[in-house]
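Q: Given only this backbone (271 positions), what sequence would you predict?
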């Protein structure tokens, strides 16, 4: 009886060793389904197990869309100020890192007035220099303000060109006042959030918190508003926004690794 029991334990121990040695393969094989967005659970594929021959690389896709207000209310001076912000901040975004992960960062940009002009989409991403050249060449439109069109177009682009498990961020620059015939920007923003897009609003001027336009920016932005409502007039804008995005990225990848670990531990315990 003792010999039989020892043999069984030896087989179980050996099987668990096999599972443990295959853990890296499981992580490697689920890279394409591994999410940086904790709203999307990790799904590990079932396949034959064999240890990887190369180091594991965990990839986190991060997609960020800049939306510039090119309306008559923004004026040429503010439009140029928005462009300058995008040019500076896009360079800084290249510094975002997450320990143990390789970030696949892609940027896109569009401008809006009574119409929407797509300047650079996600699929065309090559590098930050190409992106910045497109932004630098943007021409001011100067018609009415229809921010709902911009949000809707951006949401559609996220749906077409990015994976559902990527970190999606929309940076909307606006003065908070639309043309009377414009559709509801709040409704458009709600639809964007339903697609797991984190929405930041960047007011074109420093507005008191009790102003109606500031309240509208808060209703468009993701919650909590104190983290997602910013101002182009704030000298610390870039520092604040970089800090928020850095936290967002690192929180997302930490949650993803936690989900993978829990899944593997449960699988091992079950076996």
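A: Predicted residues:
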């Amino acid at each position: 009886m003792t010999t039989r029991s020892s043999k069984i334990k030896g087989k179980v121990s050996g099987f668990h060793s096999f599972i443990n040695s295959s853990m890296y393969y499981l992580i490697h094989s689920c890279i394409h389904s591994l999410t940086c967005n904790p709203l999307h659970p990790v799904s590990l594929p079932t396949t034959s197990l064999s240890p990887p021959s190369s180091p594991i690389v965990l990839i986190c896709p991060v997609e960020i869309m800049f939306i510039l207000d090119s309306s008559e209310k923004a004026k040429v001076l503010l439009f140029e100020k928005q462009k300058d912000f995008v040019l500076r901040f896009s360079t800084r975004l290249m510094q975002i890192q997450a320990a143990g992960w390789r970030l696949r960062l892609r940027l896109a940009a569009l401008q809006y007035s009574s119409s929407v002009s797509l300047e650079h989409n996600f699929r065309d991403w090559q590098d930050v220099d190409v992106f910045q050249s497109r932004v630098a060449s943007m021409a001011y439109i100067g018609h009415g303000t229809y921010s709902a069109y911009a949000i809707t177009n951006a949401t559609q682009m996220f749906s077409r060109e990015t994976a559902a498990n990527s970190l999606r961020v929309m940076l909307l620059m606006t003065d908070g006042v639309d043309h009377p015939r414009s559709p509801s920007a709040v409704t458009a923003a709600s639809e964007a959030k339903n697609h797991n897009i984190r929405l930041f609003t960047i007011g074109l001027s420093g507005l008191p918190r009790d102003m109606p336009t500031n309240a509208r920016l808060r209703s468009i932005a993701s919650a909590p508003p104190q983290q997602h409502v910013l101002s182009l007039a704030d000298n610390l804008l870039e520092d604040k926004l970089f800090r928020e995005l850095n936290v967002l990225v690192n929180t997302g990848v930490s949650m993803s690794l936690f989900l993978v670990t829990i899944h593997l531990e449960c699988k091992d315990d079950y076996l």
